[in-house]
Structure to design on (551 residues):
């Protein structure tokens, strides 16, 4: 019983019937997936959809969605292969008969019965043989006495049920072959790492699905620009739309639309307007993004609740400083963390208002810089931008825990020369200990997290 | 000298036949919706045999079917939503620009 553990059963006919239905169902599934692929191809070759966004989305279909399909079908083939392998191995290692059926509890019961028979035969046979020998020694002189030989019977029982041995006999071998087949097949199946592949695929699918579900039509165009440009002249800094970060710092090789090396995350990166800089770190592009010109999330603003959720899903720290400008209250909100898909780094944004809900201060295009010193002592290049939101995330620095994050320092600078002397002094009165003034005349502050 | 940077940089035509686009996206949604697997196989796989390997394969099958379910939602709802958003953004852009010109 010890070699089996719980009872095992296998019926070749039932397995064959199930597999036949399963394979038929999956064949239909594969055909439906092929039909979907045809639709993807229609999308890719649609000549009535042209332009950079069109090409980007076609590239996403080609390299992102079709790869999803390919990997899902690949996992499907792997699953069916494991079923096939199991059936073949049962046939070659346990029993090749198409109607083979095996139940270990039944075999063990038979083995138990036959061991009892064996012991009966052995005991009775030995007794009969002993008695026969006694008769033969006493009365053999009167004639021939045949001594019965139970050895062939005992041997037959031994061969079938193992006799006194626990680990031999035909029944034991049957069970053992079945148990070994089961164990070997489990090892083989585990070596294929199918669940890990499915989990990894599912994670990427979820990321992509979440990003797609968050897409909104953006409200950004000439009217938006003209309105903001008019208001910009009332108080916005000298750097208004002069230069974007990618012009100032240099962009990555594939910055035109999105990072082609990582198309699975295209929706995420495209939606949040992240691009590679020449330093191959991710930086938000608030000037010239894929989503038709601006970071759509600006329309949502930011609130403490997002931060709570954000903190739950990622490793992060944040802090805030408030200032007044032109009678309005603003918040400098800055973070450091290891963000999913982006890596470790930091970001800093300017928000209007100081309450629970803050509106993104897109009218505040301030000259900002960010630099990250990672836990391993290496440092990012300084990234600068004229913007309301600056970021610097290094995809090669990831899996940061709490201690790694504590050992990471993000240094930010902001040119606040647009503040009046009074506003500047009010700000320094509160945060003078927290910030370092790099240039009092130009009102440039440096602070760390 | 002033240069029309936007034109020289992009040097590309922007065009969408929204009817054709919508028809294709609808086709993706319909085909995506049809990409489903009959979940009764998961239960049948549990009953197929009583071995560790069939238990394991049943577990894998269940996992794969969950993935297939997620993919069905992705391909039939979320992807078409994302693609339709591209169309709607373009339409909205066109409207906003036209209003700005007015």
């Amino acid at each position: 019983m010890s070699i089996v553990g719980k009872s095992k059963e296998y019926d070749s006919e039932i397995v064959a019937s199930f597999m036949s239905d399963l394979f038929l169902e999956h064949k239909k599934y594969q055909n439906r997936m092929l039909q979907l692929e045809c639709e993807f191809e229609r999308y890719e070759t649609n000549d009535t959809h042209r332009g950079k966004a069109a090409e980007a989305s076609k590239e996403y279909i080609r390299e992102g969605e079709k790869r999803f399909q390919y990997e899902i079908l690949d996992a499907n083939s792997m699953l069916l292969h494991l079923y096939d392998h199991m059936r073949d191995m049962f046939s070659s290692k346990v029993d090749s008969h198409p109607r083979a059926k095996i139940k270990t509890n039944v075999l063990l019961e038979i083995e138990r019965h036959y061991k009892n028979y064996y012991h009966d035969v052995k005991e009775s046979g030995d007794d009969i043989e002993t008695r026969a020998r006694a008769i033969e020694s006493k009365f053999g002189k009167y004639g021939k006495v045949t001594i019965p030989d139970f050895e062939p019977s005992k041997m037959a029982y031994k061969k079938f049920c193992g006799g006194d041995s626990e680990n031999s006999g035909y029944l034991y071998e049957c069970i053992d072959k079945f148990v070994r087949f089961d164990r070997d097949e489990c090892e083989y199946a585990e070596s294929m790492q199918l669940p890990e592949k499915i989990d990894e695929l599912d994670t990427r699918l979820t990321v992509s699905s979440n990003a797609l579900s968050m897409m909104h039509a953006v409200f950004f165009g000439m009217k938006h620009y003209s309105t903001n440009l008019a208001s910009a002249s009332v108080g916005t800094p000298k750097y208004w739309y002069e230069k974007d970060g990618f012009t100032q710092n240099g962009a990555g090789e594939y910055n035109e639309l999105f990072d082609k090396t990582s198309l699975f995350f295209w929706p995420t990166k495209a939606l949040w307007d992240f691009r590679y800089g020449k330093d191959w770190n991710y930086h938000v592009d608030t000037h010239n993004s894929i989503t038709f010109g601006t970071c759509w999330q600006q329309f949502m603003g930011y609130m403490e609740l997002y931060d709570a959720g954000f903190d739950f899903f990622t490793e992060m720290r944040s802090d805030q400083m408030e200032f007044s400008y032109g009678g309005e209250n603003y918040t400098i909100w800055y973070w450091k963390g290891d963000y999913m898909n982006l890596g470790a780094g930091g970001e800093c944004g300017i928000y209007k208002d100081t309450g629970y809900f803050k509106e993104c201060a897109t009218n505040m295009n301030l000259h900002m810089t960010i630099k990250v010193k990672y836990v391993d002592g290496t440092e990012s290049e300084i990234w600068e931008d004229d913007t309301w939101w600056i970021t610097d995330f290094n995809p090669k620095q990831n899996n940061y825990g709490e201690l790694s994050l504590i050992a990471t320092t993000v240094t930010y600078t902001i040119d606040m020369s647009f503040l009046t002397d009074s506003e500047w002094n009010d700000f320094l009165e509160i945060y003078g200990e927290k910030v370092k003034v790099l240039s009092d005349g130009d009102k440039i502050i440096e602070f760390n997290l | 000298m002033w240069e029309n940077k936007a034109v020289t940089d992009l040097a590309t035509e922007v065009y969408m036949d929204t009817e054709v686009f919508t028809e294709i996206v609808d086709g993706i949604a319909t085909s995506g919706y049809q990409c489903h697997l009959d979940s009764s196989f998961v239960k049948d796989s549990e009953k197929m045999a009583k071995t560790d390997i069939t238990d394991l394969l049943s577990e894998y099958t269940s996992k794969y079917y969950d993935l297939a379910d997620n993919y069905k939602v992705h391909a039939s709802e979320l992807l078409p939503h994302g693609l339709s958003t591209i169309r709607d953004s373009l339409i909205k852009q066109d409207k906003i620009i036209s209003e700005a010109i007015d």
Notes: The first strand of chain B starts at residue 15 and ends at 16. Chain B has one domain: 5-101. The two ends of chain B are 29 Å apart (CA to CA).
